[in-house]
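hey can u run this one w/ zinc ion bound, need the structure tokens asap thx
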Amino acid sequence: MVFKKGHPYYKGSEKNWFKKGNTPWWVLKGIEHPAKRIEVRNKISEANKGKRKSPETEFKKGDKRYWLGKKRSKETKEKMSINRTGKCIGEENPFYGKKHNEETKNTMKKKRQEGLKSGKIKIWNKDVPYTKISGEKHWNWKGGITPENHRQRVLIQSKLWRKSVLKRDNYTCQECHERGGRLHAHHIKTWAKYPKLRFDVNNGITLCKQCHDQIRWKEEDWIEYFQSKLGGGIRQEYCSTPTQAI
Ligand SMILES: [Zn+2]
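ok here u go:
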């Protein structure tokens, strides 16, 4: 019912109208605003129980945006984290074996760059101490499958391998030919797929950080290119591999 001018209830009701500067009735009575009182709130919530204002548009669990702005309890988060650890790898990953097309890749790249620029996207592990996200706390932690002494040996071998590769290449990026700076020893054939070549100096090439970043995630595509750069991968003068010493 709308109380418009001319409505029989309109007349006389104007004196009860609330005007700016008036003291509200609940203040005059010395009570709290009715909507703030717990018994009133309970009454309202009781009356609204089971009623859905807009069943068609309301968010349901499973909707993409259902969790937007909602928070999960710490316990739930922990449970989810434990449940997910070690999963979603390889064939269990919903994206396994699929590839984004170039257009999508470009869009993703652009969005990320824009996000980083505007500050909307933050690098989650920036300024986080490494010890907080490594080892047991790492999302891909598989329960410490490498025995400690083996890990130590791998670490030493890796360092020696890196040193040998850099030395052979005269501490010069083999792509842009800049000498010194932040140099990486790149595994031509990947560490993961070619375990036998992990410490083979002929499987390494020196790249500066910038050049290395360019080929990240695309290592497979560059194998032949880098091998040809090394002249088939053999440079006898520095072929004393560090692995022989261990
Ligand atoms: Zn370079």
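The chain has seven helices and two strands. anyway lmk if its weird
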